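TICKET: design request
STATUS: open
ATTACHED STRUCTURE:
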């Protein structure tokens, strides 16, 4: 029996673990298949406060983990297969059959960026391929960029990247865009944005030194292949929250993101909290995730003290 179990070890989960451990709650932190979250696939992190010269993503996550361990957090590697929030103590069934029990749960399993699944993509993530314009746009100052996608996120990322790039080419497999009219108009009104519609991405192309040189695409009208030259390829086709393992144990929105009470990390289950990208459809930044991890730990502590009033769970469950 644990006072608190944290599921997930990105910036949100590790920050929650630090705060819980410092409160002498001795949390158990469950690491999944990617300990440290998406930042472990990032090279240089320059927008996390406190590091004037930047810091490598894996180093930042390792430092946060060691900090949590220093204060008494316990870590366990494994995959959560199923949860039971119907009764207290809450139960977590691990892969292999072990069942863990806790008075409170913090879910910080994040959201995974969707990828194209084409050759040259995964092996160049962090080395010319990115899914986060806010995180990596600065590194492409004065360079050519390709953005793949046709929704609001793609339009927003393309417009944002024009602050740094010499040009941004937006690639979409259809002629029609899914983005709202206002977002389309904003992108079309930007003279730095170029368009390569009706093109299906085939491969991320690199030179003999492994440097990204562009995106190979197929023209869906002529069926001819062509290279869209670029120094960086940004994939903006959405994110998938990592909530499948929860089943219907907790309330999520239509996309699968956990619904929390605004301004808190409270879910519709008293004693279960959510932080980081698993409940964030808007910001998805390391610093906002870490901040919400702090909130979750403090909410959790108040709940265990008996000072938290739950006056909204019935409304959420309707």
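STATUS: resolved
RESOLUTION: sequence designed for all positions
ATTACHED SEQUENCE:
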């Amino acid at each position: 029996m644990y006072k608190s179990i944290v599921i997930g070890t990105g910036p949100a989960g590790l920050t929650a673990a630090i705060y819980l451990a410092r409160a002498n709650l001795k949390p158990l932190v469950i690491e999944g298949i990617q300990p440290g979250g998406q930042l472990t696939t990032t090279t240089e992190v320059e927008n996390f406060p406190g590091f004037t010269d930047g810091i490598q993503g894996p180093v930042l996550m390792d430092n946060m983990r060691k900090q949590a361990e220093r204060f008494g957090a316990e870590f366990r590697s494994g995959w959560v297969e199923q949860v039971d929030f119907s009764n207290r103590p809450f139960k977590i069934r691990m892969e292999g059959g072990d069942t863990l029990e806790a008075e409170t749960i913090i879910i910080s399993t994040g959201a995974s960026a969707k990828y194209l699944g084409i050759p040259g993509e995964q092996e160049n993530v962090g080395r010319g391929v990115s899914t986060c314009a806010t995180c990596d746009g600065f590194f492409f100052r004065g360079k050519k960029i390709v953005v793949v996608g046709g929704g609001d996120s793609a339009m927003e990322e393309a417009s944002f990247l024009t602050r740094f790039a010499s040009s941004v080419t937006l690639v979409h497999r259809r002629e029609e865009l899914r983005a709202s009219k206002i977002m389309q108009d904003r992108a079309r009104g930007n003279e730095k944005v170029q368009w390569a519609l009706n093109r299906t991405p085939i491969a991320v192309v690199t030179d003999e030194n492994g440097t990204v040189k562009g995106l190979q695409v197929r023209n869906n009208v002529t069926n001819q292949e062509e290279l869209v030259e670029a120094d960086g390829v940004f994939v903006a086709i959405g994110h998938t929250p990592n909530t499948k393992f929860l089943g219907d144990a907790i309330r999520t929105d239509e996309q699968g993101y956990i619904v929390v009470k605004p301004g808190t990390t409270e879910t519709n289950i008293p004693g279960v909290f959510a932080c980081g990208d698993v409940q964030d459809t808007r910001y998805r930044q390391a610093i906002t995730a870490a901040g919400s991890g702090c909130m979750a730990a403090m909410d959790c502590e108040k709940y265990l003290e008996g000072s938290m009033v739950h006056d909204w769970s019935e409304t959420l469950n309707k």
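CLOSING REMARK: The longest helix spans residues 286-305. DSSP finds seven helices and 19 strands in the chain.
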